[in-house]
Specification:
The complex is a heterodimer of chains A (301) and B (257). Chain A is an alpha/beta fold. Chain A has 9 helices and 13 strands. Helix content of chain A is 29%, strand content 26%. In chain A, a hairpin with a 4-residue loop joins β11 and β12. Chain A is elongated, with a radius of gyration of 24 Å. In chain B, a hairpin with a 2-residue loop joins β1 and β2. The chains are: A alpha/beta (301), B mainly alpha (257).
């Protein structure tokens, strides 16, 4: 197996008396989309900026494309594209000029028009940056990061502040990158974004990774109990699976054997000719797991 | 692409930005010319004794003074305020994440400043020749004069880069930069010529800082008084070197918290 693109062991970072990152381990393999998911202030940006070479770690080991990120040489920088959480571009250049300026820094850049197409800014190519909307400027950020045709792309909260349609658009752009075989390191505080894009997710809270896995299995999501809810007026003879009343007449039960439970419940209801009103069968969502893992701090923004 | 080509490319883009930005195009370019017109209109008919026994028209005096002012504005004020803006907007941070070496980026900026400075000196001189029959440097004096403009632009640009380190944010930039440079311009006789009554302390301040030395060297090129002294160029260069050292040590690519 090829060497991991990013490898981090026991990474720590302190700012004066605050320890923002407290012993982080993670590995990102070539060609995968890895999402670092966590609430604001969990240490996401600190971690990603250490890997990008903007901050010095306090201790621990870190390798990016086989190099120490505290000391990235020019040849390694040429293989990395960065979309920072907040950055600007000169407001007086056009989209095309801006991309062209940045692509000149790389030895094997991609054609301007191609990059413009990937991010969907074709109609704006001759528009000055200060005439773009916020979402369009963010797409330009991605375009600039792509201009040098990097192997590894860092995306730090790429869709924060986007409306739903702009986010879907941005996701499509990231999927295009996946199709190009790029390795993507994504940070986000949106569960759906991680679920939508990432092959692997690590949840970070208070500076440590609290869970890691695929979006489908993370935090024991695949083995967690299923929640079944329904309302029924007459409960006589109801098979007991440990249901509890929720107050408004709804009954809730949790089970690891949803098929069996549902079979017996529905058989019972059919026998009596009654209806399980408002029947709901729910697997824990990534959001449920996330809230549980991060101590309910999700989406504090 | 070699680093020199990259720097020249950077100059080209910086130049595009410069002319499209109404702020920099106006304050850097139009301002000194406007001042030249105003000062010569107000005071141009008088005379001024620029060295013992050397009396020239004030209009000629202002051609040289505004030429120096133009270079200082283009190099110092423009770089200091412009770079803080770029820093706070996150443009510098983005650049730092690319393979472009920092010195190539900054070198491109300084080279651009030099071009603007030369252009401004040419325009003010032409203005002086046409309207005030001011003398312009020729022969070896022209070479010396060119050296002054080059050393001056580079030095004031380096000092501008160093100044960004003490500016907390873009909002404060014009205030901080003007608080430094405006008093110095006045204390160095840029706007109001020094005369016999000029207090000694002002002359002392003027001798310490680079503005007066630079202006004197420029004036030597225009009307030969005070005489051209390499010492003036040296003082400006030493300030520039100090600015460069401070900039290397304290210049930051990210907004200050």
């Amino acid at each position: 197996m090829a060497e991991p693109v990013i490898q981090v062991r026991d990474l720590r970072k302190s700012y004066q008396d605050v320890e923002a990152v407290r012993g982080l381990d993670l590995t990102v393999e070539s060609g995968e989309v890895f999402a670092l998911l966590g609430p604001n202030g969990a240490g996401k940006t600190t971690t990603v900026e250490i890997l990008e070479g903007y901050r010095q770690r306090t201790s621990g080991e870190a390798w990016v494309l086989g190099r120490d990120p505290a000391n990235l040489d020019r040849a390694t920088r040429e293989r990395i594209g960065i979309v920072l959480q907040s950055t600007g571009v000169d407001p007086f250049l056009t989209v095309r000029e801006t991309i062209d300026m940045y692509r000149g820094y790389y030895p094997h850049p991609r054609p301007v028009d191609e990059v413009v197409d990937v991010v969907g800014l074709s109609e704006k190519r001759d528009t000055r940056v200060n005439k773009l909307s916020g979402g369009q400027q963010r797409r330009l950020d991605v375009a600039i990061a792509l201009a040098g045709d990097p192997e590894l792309l860092f995306l730090d909260e790429p869709t924060t502040g986007f409306d739903p349609s702009a986010r879907r658009h941005a996701w499509q752009i990231v999927r295009n990158l996946i199709a190009l075989g790029k390795t993507v390191f994504l940070t986000t505080h949106y569960m759906d974004e991680a679920q939508e894009l990432a092959k692997r997710v690590a949840v970070i809270a208070k500076g440590v990774i609290v869970a890691e896995g695929s979006p489908a299995t993370i935090g024991g999501r695949d083995t967690a109990q299923t929640v079944i809810r329904f309302r029924v007026d007459d409960r006589e003879g109801i098979p007991s699976f440990g249901h509890v009343p929720l107050g408004d007449g709804t009954l809730e039960l949790r089970t690891e054997h949803p098929t069996k439970v549902l079979h017996e419940l529905t058989a019972w209801a059919l026998d009596r000719g009654s209806e399980l009103e408002g029947l709901e069968v729910r697997r824990p969502t990534l959001e449920d797991i996330y809230l549980q893992l991060t101590g309910g701090e999700a989406g504090t923004e | 692409m070699s680093d020199v080509e990259l720097a020249l490319r950077q100059v080209r883009y910086t130049n595009k930005e410069f002319w499209r930005n109404p702020g920099s195009a106006f304050f850097t370019f139009a301002f000194p010319l406007m001042f030249l017109v105003i000062f010569t209109a107000l005071l141009g008919s008088g005379t001024v004794e620029v060295a013992p026994g050397v009396i020239i028209k004030q209009s000629t005096y202002y051609v040289a003074a505004m030429s120096a002012f133009a270079v200082i504005t283009a190099a110092y004020t423009n770089i200091a305020i412009g770079m803080v803006f770029q820093r706070d907007a996150g443009i510098l941070k983005r650049t730092k994440g690319t393979p472009l070496p920092g010195w190539v980026y900054l070198g491109g900026r300084v080279l651009h400043v030099l071009i603007i400075a030369v252009l401004l000196v040419l325009i003010t001189s032409a203005f002086g020749v046409v309207f005030y029959s001011a003398d312009v440097p020729t022969g070896t004096l022209l070479l010396k004069f060119a050296a002054v403009v080059v050393v001056g632009s580079m030095s004031f640009a380096a000092l501008g880069l160093a100044t960004t380190a003490i500016v907390p944010n873009a909002d404060a930039a014009p205030a901080v930069v003007n608080a430094i440079i405006l008093p110095l311009l006045f204390l160095s006789g840029i706007f109001i010529p020094f005369g016999v009554e000029t207090p000694e302390w002002i002359k002392t301040v003027a001798r310490i800082f680079p503005v007066k030395h630079f202006t004197d060297a420029m004036r030597a090129g225009f009307y030969g008084a005070p005489p051209f002294l390499w010492r003036d160029v040296l003082v400006v260069g030493i300030w520039g070197l100090a600015g460069l050292i401070l900039a290397v040590r304290f210049f930051t690519w990210e907004p200050k918290k």
